[in-house]
Specification:
Helix content is about 45%, strand content about 15%. It has helices at about 5-10, 40-45, 105-120, 130-135, 140-155, 155-165, 170-195, 205-235, 250-255, 300-315, 330-345, 365-375, 395-400, 405-410, 420-440, 445-460, 470-475, and strands at about 20, 30-35, 50, 65-70, 80-85, 100-105, 125, 235-240, 275-280, 285-290, 315-325, 350-355, 380. A 7-stranded mixed sheet has the order 3-4-5-6-2-1-7. The protein has a 6-stranded mixed sheet with strand order 9-10-8-11-12-13, with helices on both faces. Strand 12, helix 12 and strand 13 (about 380) form a beta-alpha-beta unit. The two termini are about 30 Å apart.
């Protein structure tokens, strides 16, 4: 049994300590992993590991090896058979010595092994601390670190692809290219101001203007596809709207593949909003089924209608159902006006699909009449949610509408993080100010101020110009053990 002094000897008083945590889900599973990282990771784990041959030789194992054996407690009571991976600095995820103990899964056994490691001198890792150490050790930049959590939390194929591309450096390489160009111009201006005899500034403002314009054009493209990509990554906020009994709840149930909402022939069955996350053709929809929008004196219905209007204002996609067996009513016209104002706010991101429901019944309203009346709609489909006719086409329409194929192709260099997009926008504004200064004939030292602002803003994406508290905030959102 190890003494208290032997255990305490492994605690690094400088603050460069060794951390440990369970890296897999705390639930019954085939395998669980305890990750240990820091200067004393191997020494702390070594006393608890015994090989199949009875040797306690973990410290002698080479880097990037995995060995079979057992974990024993301080009294040499065997706890579990394990596979132990050893990674020596700097060739590990964290750039530190790292040990990963692969045991059988289950909350009890994982906690028993983790408790041994903590009593041996490690401390419990904070959320995201392993990845934070990889960032601080220079193995990955901040954008790649954030991509790790994006990959873990991805809810659809598009989110997975963009996160994996960012983890591979697609975003950081693009941003570093911008920063490199800006840094060169800053250095040139500084040198020319310090040594005007050696550097000729004749014609330089015009050359700088062209360079700034090129970067701004590239940023424009990044921001445009980034905004669209963010919608697909996070899930398209979708509102199902229409007047009472138009088929809204039937549509929700069709998309969800289950009886999520109550459907009756009685108008006004849905009096509040219902929310469901639905995947259709690989696209995530965050769907809200709303109360039928109409004039009413019922107090409860009025609250539901107000919530329906709020759901519309917060949506990127509206699925508007019209009962063609009854025709266009005054209520439909009011909804159309509401949608017209909604669409004006951001026509590039806000889309509307008209669904002419109950096509199995004799129509009172023809398709062309609806098309001419609702000119703001991006697509019009005829369907019967009772028979399923035409409903399949909805997925194809959404896929085309959001340029899924095009965005998937461009996902390798897509900025979908809100933090990243805001930093690019700030840099964009600073470079625009450089062009304004050039147009006004101002001196070169004015250019340098705004160039530096752009350079710093972009550095916040990769972590080369970021405050400590922001780093702490970013990694605090990570899961434990990552």
């Amino acid at each position: 049994m190890r003494t208290e002094s032997e255990k305490n000897a492994y605690v690094d008083k400088s603050g460069n300590d060794t951390i440990a945590a369970v890296a897999t889900a705390m639930s019954a599973a085939g395998i669980g992993i305890i990750r240990v990282s820091g200067p004393d990771a191997i020494r702390i784990c070594a006393p608890y590991y015994v090989s199949a041959g009875g040797n306690r030789n973990l410290e002698s194992h080479a880097s990037n090896t995995i060995v079979f054996g057992y974990i024993e407690d301080d009294d040499h009571t065997r706890l579990d058979e394990v596979m132990v991976s050893v990674f020596r600095a700097p060739h590990s995820y964290t750039t530190e010595d790292t040990v990963e103990i692969n045991s059988h899964g289950g909350t009890f056994i994982l906690n028993r092994i983790l408790d041994l490691i903590l009593r041996g001198g490690a401390r419990l890792a904070e959320p995201g601390e392993f990845t934070k150490r990889a960032f601080l050790g220079g193995r990955i930049d901040l954008s790649r670190a954030e991509a790790v959590m994006d990959l873990i939390s991805s809810q659809n194929e598009f989110a997975r692809r963009t996160a994996l591309a960012q983890l591979g450096g697609s975003v950081s390489e693009k941003i570093k290219g911008f920063r490199s160009s800006i840094l060169y111009e800053m250095a040139f201006i500084e040198s020319a101001l310090d040594d005007p005899d050696s550097y000729d500034l004749d014609g330089y403002p015009e050359r700088l203007d062209g360079i700034c314009q090129k970067i701004l054009d590239d940023m424009d493209s990044l921001l445009e596809i980034g905004d669209k990509g963010a919608v697909l990554k996070e899930g398209i906020r979708t509102a199902i709207i229409g007047r009472p009994n138009a088929g809204k709840s039937s549509l929700l149930n069709y998309l969800a593949g289950t009886e999520r909402a109550i459907v009756t022939e009685i108008a006004g069955t849905t009096r509040d909003t219902l929310q469901e996350s639905i995947r259709i053709r690989g696209i995530q929809l965050r769907v809200t089924d709303t109360a039928g929008i109409h004039e009413t004196d019922d107090r409860v219905e009025k609250i539901g209608i107000e919530r329906a209007k709020e759901a519309i204002s917060q949506s990127e996609l509206v699925l508007y159902l019209i009962d063609v067996s009854e025709g266009i009513t005054a209520e439909d016209k009011d909804i159309a006006e509401l949608l017209k104002n909604w669409k004006k706010e951001d026509p590039s991101l806000r889309k509307c699909i008209l669904l002419l429901n109950k096509s199995d019944l004799p129509p009172v309203t023809e398709e062309e009449s609806v098309r001419s009346f609702f000119g703001e709609a991006d697509a019009l489909l005829s369907c019967s949610l009772k028979t399923g006719e035409g409903a399949e086409e909805l997925g194809h329409t959404i896929e085309k509408m959001y340029h899924m194929g095009e965005l998937t192709h461009q996902s390798e260099s897509m900025i979908t993080s809100l933090r990243h997009r805001e930093a690019v926008r700030e840099a964009y504004e600073s470079l625009s100010l450089v062009r304004q200064s050039i147009a006004m004939g101002m001196s070169e030292d004015f250019f340098a101020i705004d160039l530096m602002n752009a350079y710093t803003c972009l550095g916040r994406i990769t972590g080369e110009a970021v405050e400590d508290d922001l780093v702490e905030e970013i990694f605090s959102k990570f899961c434990m053990g990552k």
